[in-house]
Fold these 2 entries.
Entry 1:
Amino acid sequence: MRGLLIGLSLCVLAATGRAATDDVSDHRRTLANLQAELVEHRAALKDLSNQERSILLTIRSLDRALSKFEAEGRQAERTVEQLRQKRERLTAEVAVLTQTLDGARARLSRRWRTIYAEGQGGAVRHLLSSHSFEDYAYRYRYLAARAQIDRALLAQVETVRTDKAAREQALREAEQNADALRNALVEQGRIVELVRAERKDAVAQIEQQKALGVRAVTENVALQKEVQRELVSLLRKAPPRRRPPQGVLKAGLRRPLSGAIFRDFGTVKDKVTGAKVTSNGIHIRAALGTKVLSPGDGTVVYTGWLRGFGQMVIIDLGEHTHVLLGHLSRSVVKRGDLVARGQVVGYSGDTESMDGPQLYLELRRKSRPINPARYLRSS
């Protein structure tokens, strides 16, 4: 039974080791594929003057590819942490098995010395020196039991030795996999910084070159009309919030993060094109990766990408009131989640933003936008 359990343990350990190796290989393959995808989008980014290519679509495609790349990196970081924990566990197990093996070998060594001292044919002499049949039977049973103990001791030494070797191999593989992933993450970080710098330069180029600026603003104005229709349709399809509160706006909304408002609610005339550009919300300056808090108690009715707003979370506050949080680097909630006022729902970013890292905050009452600034509270 003991041998069967140890055998099963070794099989499970080997399967776990193979699974970990497969996970690492999958991560590395995925990162390589995403890196190739980024190369394609970066090439488009450097060709903004191409009249056949949409400027906003180029930025949007790059942001989505970059987001997937960073998400895979976060998953790889979690795998590295799992490998670290596995390494600690295996190190402790190897130490215990080493101690067990040393003890078993010491007992086996003492037993060999005893057998050596008895000399060749010791067991036979022990039997032949019996004084009676009863004494012979007693000595035979003793020798048989001693032989069984010796076999068990030999089996224990072998199984513990095999188990220890398997865990040492698994430990080496965990260390190699962790090192490989850490190296991949270092390279990934370098690529992310490079791509973000290129993206920033491209946006600066759009702002500096009048022709590109005109195209970008023209595209944005046209996009706004399409997105507004999509947004109204999305909110009308959203399931009603459970247990809606009373007077949701009377209580005010918690400010989702600190930062200066650099674009207000309302319509302004673009200085370059003269086109009317409408902002149905406010734009708050925020460092990349700042925690974004829920402005109130509510139900998440949408998480994902929305054209012109990047990654977005929409929360139903009840009473036909919705708050929209856009340009996120990522969200940490999913559709249907109940969220509390002040709960982290995502992190600020620059997805599909032409103004750097920020948070877009929009408030809608019965699908119509209203100025959220008047309802914001510090807590």
Entry 2:
Amino acid sequence: MDIKYNKIGVNYNLTRKADKYLTEQLLYHLQPVKNGKYLDIGCGTGNYTHELQKNGVDFIGIDPSELMLEKAKLKNDQVYWKIGAAENTGLPENFVDGIIGSLTIHHWTDLKIGFSELNKVLKPNGKIVIFTSTPKQMKGYWLNHYFPKMLSDSIMQMPALEKVKKAMKDSGIEFLETHKYFIKSDLEDQFLYCGKQNPELYFNEQIRHGISSFSSLSNRKEVENGLMELRKDIDSGKIEEIIRSYENTFGDYLYIIGKKPMSNNT
């Protein structure tokens, strides 16, 4: 992940901005307490860490990419930015009151080790809020029609919900609930399915560069051909039919919420 995101990180902040609604949702699910200390694991350039800190929540941002953290520091020097990973945060036991992880768990090398480490640094009753997408959800993206190999490779990276729930349980974290997220038309954070309702976004090279599927996984020829076909379908109006054929109720992304029990007996 470090090498990949050092490459993406060059102009990452041009297209990857904290979305207002997603920030509000993270706060709602996290329910931070006054004077608490919180962790953003896999924080990247710290867009959400920064926004949450602006809301009065004291955050630590951890990421394995030095370049990403350099950019994060420029944004906010009130946050404690630290090199690390979910599997090895370098933080003491029972240190943070809550944890968020946004679009990061598919980069972890081992889910169970990652959740075990986060369980260790989390205080009893502390919440963990993961924002991700599942293979089931991603199979419902109309992007599959134009970039089948890229999406197939992306889907292979994503852990299924049941696998995440099992890893949480095995590491001592109690699974609480999930909440579906459907892409909104005013989304400000231009991640993979940002163009769900606005396919024109995918012709912007900067947007594609900020999406790891396009910048790291994709085959250039498939992207060129897919964009040509997409252009043709937009111009003819066929895109509307394609988009309709992929409509579903699975949600585009998912909040997975858990907590560290008060004790092993609860």
